[in-house]
User: What shape does this take?
Amino acid sequence: MTKEVEAVSEQPAEYSAKDYTDPPPTPLIDFEELTKWSLYRACIAEFIATLLFLYVTVLTVIGYKHQSDTKDGGDICGGVGILGIAWAFGGMIFVLVYCTAGISGGHINPAVTFGLFLARKVSLMRAVLYMVSQCLGAICGVGLVKAFQKAYYNRYGGGVNVMAGGHNKGVGLGAEIIGTFVLVYTVFSATDPKRSARDSHVPVLAPLPIGFAVFMVHLATIPITGTGINPARSFGAAVIYNQDKAWDEHWIFWVGPFVGAFAAAVYHQYILRAGALKALGSFRSNA
Assistant: This one.
């Protein structure tokens, strides 16, 4: 087996490329998909996964703020800290992607769904239904947090994403764009079927790098925006908290992630995977 792997690795790039054919792009609009139970099962999986994601992570944020609240007998150095919050977000993404990848693809994020739609990995109708399911799941997840911890929820800001003091909106938008780029780029790389075919001898658990990407981005951007990089997460918290500060800069947490996802899709598909060169070659061959 080792000799076979070495023999393949010694072949020129042109030879190895011929051993793999990209799957055809998903149809933009597929009405037949609406008649399949698998689509609605996937939407339910996205709904439940996003609900659980928001429930655990927002509770972690609120719990940390309470434990570190010196006015309420807390310790400023107590609680899980920013590191613990980042682990909560990254760890939950790892667990939930692992659980739902075989059913819905484990998006749990409208920005991820948008990026995969641009790459023609999912149809338009599936992408829209996923985003609706994710947003509804986020609202319900934060709703459960408020139901169980109403006093702390209201006192500590409901886990909403807001700009931290000392940073302007441009900085926040840039942080969200770059953070989402890292996440969606990681999703493309971890789930690339060509990479799986080429490196089949190297076991890679796709949810692990995705969860680590979320963890690392949170470490970098929690002090700036509280870290959105997931419009459903920001939207669910804003809807349930529903105060002015939750909506004043809310657009950042939609525009930033969608721009970042767009950039990651273009980078992966047209630069790393040479989609532009393939398209140009096809055009020249037909001319």
In short: The first helix runs from residue 2 to 9.
